[in-house]
């Protein structure tokens, strides 16, 4: 299923400003979308976001999004 749809990772940080500086200075990346607590980057076809949360570095914040063009429905066998 993961090969059928694009997955967009979302990475947690305790300091979004510091993360923005790191991605700029180390990787030369600039976000294409910014909010006070969220940055969105695109590298090729891959889009990833960085969001600020106190849960960063605790393993309580794993997030991934997938884009689908059709609505999903839940059955007793899972999401379809």
User: How many individual helices?
Assistant: 1
Distance between the termini: 11 Å
Q: Could you name the CATH class?
A: Alpha Beta
Strand order, biggest sheet? 2-3-4-1-5
What portion of the residues fall into strands of 2 or more residues? Answer: 35-45%
Task: Kindly report the oligomeric state of this protein.
Answer: single chain
Number of domains: 1
Number of strands: 7
Name the CATH homologous superfamily: 2,3-Dihydroxybiphenyl 1,2-Dioxygenase, domain 1
CATH architecture: Roll
Q: What is the string of helix and strand elements?
A: EHEEEEEE
Helix content: 10-25%
Mean pLDDT equals 79
Work out the radius of gyration.
15 Å
Taken from the alpha-carbon principal axes, the silhouette is globular
| Main sheet overview | 5 strands, mixed
The SS-based structural class is alpha+beta
CATH fold title: 2,3-Dihydroxybiphenyl 1,2-Dioxygenase, domain 1
Which segments are poorly predicted (pLDDT under 50) over 5 or more consecutive residues? none
